[in-house]
Amino acid sequence: MKFPDVSAYDNLIGGFCGGVASTLVCHPFDLLKIRFSANEGNLLRPQYTGYLDAVRRICKIEGFRGLYQGLTPSILGSSISWGLYFQWYYVIKNKLGKTGSEEIDNLICGFLSGSAVMCITNPIWLTKTRLCLQYENQTTKKFDGMIDCMKQTVKNEGFQGLYRGFVPGIIGTTHGSIQFAAYNWMKDKRCQMLEKPKDSYLAHSDYLVFSAVSKIAATTMTFPYQVLRTRMQDHNTINRGIWQITRDTLKYEGISGLWKGCIIANIRQLPAAIVTFVTYENVKRLCSSTKRD
């Protein structure tokens, strides 16, 4: 079965729904990833012995809702990012046409669309990081929600403060490029194996495998940018640039410090990617079918 003509609007709706669904399911994993990535051994932070210990201590002091700190910017950022990413990816791809191999074209389109999305969403990701790094052992909360976090950031650091971590974020767009290129490559190969037209509808199990494999590969390859961005955006430490953070991490934690939190990131990203892409494919298909009818 081949998809009817799919518009950029269908990709936008599909990506938006996928982003919301995956965030609601996986946000607690994201909170743990951010806290472990930010931890440089500073004793002012909670020193968790592991992921289960972190969950236990957070729930003991703040209740289950403590695992959902930063949920509002997380939902907003994920839905906008995925919606615009899927839409702009195909718009850019259609405008550029075929410039080289399919894999190279996918990487270029992924990088360009990811960079454009980052220009819009970096302030949202900064507030998410800072809300997630309000620890349960702090007597008072510095920020009272996403809007208050943005206001205080602009007041204390200027408008440019909302774009802390932007450089590693741009570098991190290669994550989306690698993931999307790998996902589409596997999808195209599967269609060839089944002797189906390109972009034909495949089984849910195919989307599950393709999204999982592409996400794990992309996350592991590009994870250092997430550590650097988290540490740049952390309001609990002095302001440092990307090179100073890189040097300090390598000096005091070794090369493995750049992958701190990678395991929980992959645990989080796996179901998130599956939910996002399966939702995206099905919502896109639904939009196309409704329009056809």
Description:
- The structure is a single chain.
- Helix 4 crosses helix 7 and helix 8 (204-233) crosses helix 10.
- This protein has helices at residues 8-38, 51-62, 71-96, 102-132, 146-157, 166-171, 173-193, 204-233, 242-253, 262-292.
- The relative contact order is 0.17.
- The chain has one domain: Mitochondrial carrier fold (Alpha/alpha barrel).
- The longest helix has 31 residues, at 8-38.
- It has 293 residues and is an all-alpha fold.
- Mean pLDDT is 83; it is low at 1-5.
- The chain is built from ten helices and no strands.
Descriptive labels:
293 residues; mainly alpha; Mitochondrial carrier fold; 10 helices; disordered N terminus
Count of helical segments? 10
CATH superfamily: Mitochondrial carrier domain
Name the CATH architecture. Alpha/alpha barrel
Number of strands: 0
Name the overall outline.
globular
GO cellular component, one term: membrane
Family: Belongs to the mitochondrial carrier (TC 2.A.29) family.
GO molecular function: nucleotide transmembrane transporter activity
InterPro entries: MCP, MCP_dom_sf, MCP_transmembrane, SLC25A32-like
Strands, helices and their partners?
Blueprint: H1 8-38, H2 51-62, H3 71-96, H4 102-132, H5 146-157, H6 166-171, H7 173-193, H8 204-233, H9 242-253, H10 262-292
GO molecular function: nucleotide transmembrane transporter activity
Main location: membrane
Membrane topology: Multi-pass membrane protein
Quick overview:
The chain is mainly alpha-helical and 293 residues long. The protein has helices at 8-38, 51-62, 71-96, 102-132, 146-157, 166-171, 173-193, 204-233, 242-253, 262-292. It has a single domain (8-292), classed as Mitochondrial carrier fold (Alpha/alpha barrel).
